[in-house]
Structure formats: structure tokens, C-alpha cells
Amino acid sequence: MDELVIMHDQQAVTTSLILAEAFEKEHKNVIRVIETKIGELKIEQSSKMFSKGEYTNSQNKQQPMYYLNRDGFTFIAMGFTGKKADEFKLKYIDAFNKMENQIKEKTQFRLPTNLNEMSTMFY
Questions:
Q1: What is the pTM of this model?
Q2: Directed axis angle between helix 70-77 and helix 27-40, to 10°?
Q3: Distance (Å, rounded) from C-alpha 98 to C-alpha 104?
Q4: 116 or 90, which is more confident?
């Protein structure tokens, strides 16, 4: 597992596949946990945290998966326990913070403060 946090629809997220691998759980069980939680939440709450997607499995078949933003991850993963769970939670927090900082750095805009900066903006 190389990346714990990925970009999807211009948002930093993780996936149910990543959670399953990191927590050493079967993907179908992670899906079940997510879908149970979605069923318990109001639609506007769950739609802000989870987005259904698909992936192609090793048999070249489309299978369901979920994208989870930081809140969705927190909501699901904090229910997972054990040493592996704690290790992953810390790695995820670090990865998310790094990606968030990269996004902020790319989107920061400031006006030029002198003529030299202004002339280099257009090249």
C-alpha cells in the first residue's frame, strides 16, 4: 500500500480498499460496516462523508467500493481496534495532513509586492 490518501473529485480521500488492506480485514466486511453506518445516518450526513465507486478486481469484474473523506474515515476507522488499527490511524492522519498542506500551498495566491514580482508573473 503506497498511498493512504488519494485525490478524487478534487478532494483528499481514502477508499474502502485501502482500509481493508491496512486493517487486515476482508473488503466485503469493510463495505458492510460502511453501508450499515450509511443506513443509520441521515442522507445529508452520509453523502458528505461517503461516495460509492467501483474497482476492477483480479477476475476483471467491477466490484463496489467506497471513497471516504476525512470525516468518513474517522467515523468508520475509529471503530476498528488493535495495534494495526492504531498504526494505520496515525499514518492516515499524517498522510492527510501532508496532502492538505500541499493543496493549501498550491492554492495560495498573493498579489505581487513589487514591480519585479509583477513582471515575472506573466512568464
A1: 0.68
A2: 100
A3: 10
A4: 90
